[in-house]
Amino acid sequence: VQLQASGGGLVQAGGSLRLSCAASGRTFSHSYVMGWFRQAPGKEREFVSAINWSGGSTYYADSVKGRFTISRDNAKNTEYLQMNSLKPEDTAVYYCAVGVQGGTTESTYDYWGRGTLVTVSS
Questions:
Q1: What is the pLDDT of residues 20-79, one digit of tens each?
Q2: Whole-number Å distance between alpha carbons of 92 and 99
Q3: How far apart, in whole angstroms, are the C-alpha atoms of residue 32 and residue 54?
Q4: Which among 8, 30, 31, 55 is least surrounded, fewest beta carbons within 10 Å?
Q5: Could you give the 3-state DSSP secondary structure of residue 107?
Q6: Using CA atoms, how far apart are residues 57 and 112, in angstroms rounded to an integer?
Q7: Who's near 19: CB < 8 A, 6+ residues apart?
Q8: Ramachandran angles phi, psi of 2, nearest 5°
Q9: How far apart, in whole angstroms, are the C-alpha atoms of residue 36 and residue 18?
Q10: How far apart are CA 102 and CA 97, in angstroms?
């Protein structure tokens, strides 16, 4: 299984970016959750958002609630993270992940992408 994240880049504060994560190598069943984590320089990786198979349930870290929107296209085995009103503190490497449990902790995910860098300038 491979997860390929893309869409990162440099943006000014207040701007927007859309991250994508395409999964390949297998077709995920309805039991898999897709999520996003991020790791800022000098900090531990933290949960950002997650979405269940149907897309009917979404979860967000308090720090991004109201600004980020997670979605998925199961036909394409792809998840997205629309990031609006970006702040300098959103600067981090963003990782996508897929897991059966798919909670807010890293251990609940089985597959990880390499990450894409998001830099927000002030």
A1: 999 988 766 667 899 999 999 999 999 999 999 888 899 999 999 999 999 999 889 899
A2: 22
A3: 10
A4: 30
A5: helix
A6: 21
A7: 5, 6, 7, 8, 36, 80, 81, 83, 94, 96, 116, 118
A8: -125, 135
A9: 12
A10: 8
Record the tokens describing residue 106, joined without a space: 């890293």
Which tokens belong to 72?
Answer: 């998925």
Contact between residue 19 and residue 7 where contact means Cβ atoms under 8 Å apart: yes
* Spatial contact of 110 and 60, defined as CB atoms under 8 Å apart: no
Residue owning tokens 């609006």? 84
Give the whole-angstrom CA distance, residue 74 versus residue 62: 26
Structure tokens at 11: 């943006």
Token duo for residue 5:
């994240």
85-120: pLDDT as tens digits:
999 999 999 999 999 888 999 999 999 999 999 999
Phi and psi at 82, nearest 5°, equal -85, 120
Whole-angstrom CA distances from 3 to 12, 30, 89 are 27, 17, 25
